[in-house]
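In the laboratory, one determines a bound structure by crystallizing the protein with its ligand and collecting diffraction data. In a computational setting the workflow is compressed into a single prediction: the sequence and the ligand go in, and a structural description comes out. We illustrate the idea with iron/sulfur cluster.
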Amino acid sequence: MARIFSLSFPHATVPAMSHDASRRRFLTIAVVAAATAPVALHSLNAEAAAPAPAALPKLSPTDATAKALGYVEDATKAKHAAFKPGSDCANCNFFKGAKGAASGPCTIFPKNTVVAKGWCSAYAKKP
Ligand code: SF4
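The predicted complex, in structure-token form:
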């Protein structure tokens, strides 16, 4: 329609510019969509692949890293020199479990959950 209007009135440039502007806008949107689609799909796939915190297996005290950090499931039984009474996973800054939860994720052990009453030598008091 704009083309016909432009041909009929060669000095009327407004419709022709609108057509160009629409075309430019369409091309811009198409380029942005093409550029961002892989990133968006990757994000969706990453979310789908990441296990929910509840699905993480419980950390075993016999795990090599757990042993190296002196992890125990009962902080009152910790024998590590760095242990201070009253410290446990529930009040550690690395503990990401819900308040009052018996266990939860820990930043130091990203593939496992730890016991809220547990402890390891990476303990850092919550601010
Ligand atoms: S870093 Fe903190 S929350 Fe994680 S196991 Fe050690 S004491 Fe528990």
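Residues 1-17, 31-47 have pLDDT under 50 and may be disordered. Keep in mind that any predicted model is a hypothesis to be tested, not a measurement.
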